[in-house]
Amino acid sequence: MSDETEVLTVDGLAKMLGRTEASIREGIRRGVPWLPKSFKMGNRHCWLKDDVRKFLREFRDGEFQKTKPGRKRKDPPALRIA
C-alpha cells in the first residue's frame, strides 16, 4: 500500500499523536478541535496518514489558533497636553 492511501484507525492515530486510545475515542465523541477530520469505514473511525500529517503541520504553524471571544479593545484615552 502506498503512503498516500495508508489508513489509520484509532490505535494508529493514538500512537501518532502520543495519546491514549481512550482519549482519541473521547475526543471523537466530544468533537474536539485537536483531532483531524475522520471518516467512517463500517463502524470504525479512520484517517488518511497524509491528512493527519497535513493537519499536524497546520496546527504547528498556528493556523488553528482560537480567536479570543468578546469585543475588540479600544485604545485607552490619552491625556491632551494644552
Main attributes of the structure:
three-stranded antiparallel β-sheet, 12% strand, elongated, 3 helices, 3 strands, alpha+beta, 82 residues, Multidrug-efflux Transporter Regulator, Chain: A, Domain 2
Query: What is the chain-wise order of helices and strands?
Result: EHHEEH
Largest sheet: spatial strand order: 1-3-2
| Overall form | elongated
Total tally of structural domains? 1
Structural summary, described in words:
This protein is of the alpha+beta class and 82 residues long. The protein has a single domain, classed as Multidrug-efflux Transporter Regulator, Chain: A, Domain 2 (Orthogonal Bundle). Helix content is 37%, strand content 12%. It has helices spanning 10-17, 21-30, 49-60; strands at residues 7-8, 39-41, 44-48. The protein has a 3-stranded antiparallel sheet. α1 packs across α2 (21-30). The N and C termini lie far apart (77 Å). 7% of the residues are buried. The mean pLDDT is 86.
